[in-house]
Amino acid sequence: MxxxxxxxxxxxxxxxxxxxxxxxxVLLLVLVAIFxxxxxxxxxxxxxxxxxxxxxxxxxxxxxxxxxxxxxxxxLHGARSSLMVALAGVLVGAxxxxxxxxxxxxxxxxxxxxxxxxxxxxxxxPGILLAIGIIALLGPGLGNVMIAIAVFGIPQFARLxxxxxxxVKTLDYVQGAQAQGAGDFRILARHILPNVLVxxxxxxxxxxxxxxxIASSLSFLGLGAVPPDPEWGAMLADGRAYIQTFPHIAIFPxxxxxxxxxxxxxxxxxxxxxxxxxxxxxx
Amino acid sequence: MWRYIVRRLLQTxxxxxxxxxxxxxxxxxxxxxxxxxxAGPQATLEEIQAVRxxxxxxxxxxxxxxxxxxxxxxxxFGKSMRTRVPVTEEIGLRLMPTxxxxxxxxxxxxxxxxxxGILSAVKRxxxxxxxxxxxxxxxxxxxxxxxxxxLMYLLAVKWRLLPTFxxxxxxxxxxxxxxxxxxxxxxxxxxxxxxxxxxxxxxYIRTARAKGxxxxxxxxxxxxxxxxxxxVTITGLQFGFLLGxxxxxxxxxxxxxxxxxxxxxxxSRDYPxxxxxxxFFSLTFVVINLAVDVLYAVIDPRISYE
Lengths: 283, 306
Description:
Mean pLDDT of chain B: 83
Shape of chain B: flat
CATH architecture of the domain at 96-256 in chain B: Orthogonal Bundle
Oligomer: heterodimer
Distance between the termini of chain A: 21 Å
CATH architecture of chain A: Orthogonal Bundle
Radius of gyration of chain A: 23 Å
CATH class of chain A: Mainly Alpha
Number of strands of chain B: 0
Largest sheet of chain A: none
CATH superfamily of chain A: MetI-like
CATH topology of the domain at 96-256 in chain B: MetI-like fold
CATH superfamily of the domain at 96-256 in chain B: MetI-like
Strand content of chain B: under 5%
Low-confidence stretches of chain B: none
Distance between the termini of chain B: 8 Å
Structural class of chain A: mainly alpha
Helix content of chain B: over 70%
Radius of gyration of chain B: 24 Å
Shape of chain A: globular
Number of helices of chain A: 11
Helix content of chain A: over 70%
Largest sheet of chain B: none
Largest interface: A-B, 43 and 44 residues
Order of helices and strands of chain B: HHHHHHHHHHHH
């Protein structure tokens, strides 16, 4: 077997490796979010006064912070809030955005115009700014971060689903269902939604990556999780004051956020390539 | 084309209108009595009443909005609650640091993003492609505040190459601009690669190759010129996200710009400044998007926008 043939044989697997790695990272995160508190060697709030600001050691695998708390235990405990806030925010955003997009695409006319103009206004606040505005209104806290992420996601989902609905709407089988007298709700739920599911799944995965970044950014800025909650962005904010002398406090929570976001991005990209038949052909 | 540009301009008006209504409602959605909050904790009843009248909170909502709109058009956004300085003045002082940082970051992002994207597409499925696309994926996944702290630790603390934070010489620009530019560079690289691949599979590229044009000439002259058109759009969008990113980056590097101002005023609940900053950021974003779309119409001679 020469090199070209070998490459041809292993290529489909090589091409999927990133997605598999992403999936494994996400799976690991979910497991840590569920079992993390049981795995943690120490109480995340316990202060070991004779072990403050220590680097990684056998006793404290990732070191201790300025209050002598075990960083590994805090990371394991914080996984849950970091994941929950992001995922809940994205899912709520999807739950509100999808019906808006479906009905806007299906009914068209003034309903479409009205919804999409409101979405345009929400999209006029770039990146993290809409979230900050909502926090300014509601006050800091993880619950409000979740609301901010949800509101941030509504227009994204609505726009995506509307576009797909417009495409599917004119297809024969939808017209057929309509001719058979199926009601609007039935058509939307049974015929259109399943056909726009692929982009929704991809979008949810990629949005979760972004939501984790936004949530931790807000916590880092002091607008999200309130100390002593071991949320990863908040832990990084603690480490910021010691960056000149004890960088390990900031290194590990940041690395955790980076890996998790990377995992969701890899998975989302991989799903996109795998599920999109147009791309699959040139793979 | 002109018809398209005019239509696009007209489409922007309802968005701007909507944004102004949202911003107007913003202060009025604060739980509790906005006037009491705006007047501050030590305010007397008379002072609260003065704020209420000043904001027109005792008038019907439509009148309130028209008042707000009229004042905004003349550049009157009220005074900061913290400093009692007119909001426009407070924002004016912070404008240059943010604009200069955003422009420098964007130049870095375009330079890195374009070259990585082109290289990836031209050397498709080689280690260079995988390396730059892995880098790009890492770039969109990096939390900017973490990257900022790591750069700070390595470049400023450990190797003492750059000042840790602050604003002044070009040396102060390096770390904030890299931090801010990385995300945009990664997005531009991914998009450029996709656009280039699309173009490279077209017939006219095959023709260009078949008539014996040297490879760099085909890639850069024929392919890039056409691939650039969609890239312009994503670049414009990224510029908007970059504006949002200034909030985090300016906070870490103690950069005296609008982003850091926003964090400060959210913490102190300085609503007139929050309101105006939000308006400013979203207006800038909308205008940039409009400019990009118009540019798109101007540089792409193939599509007729009728």
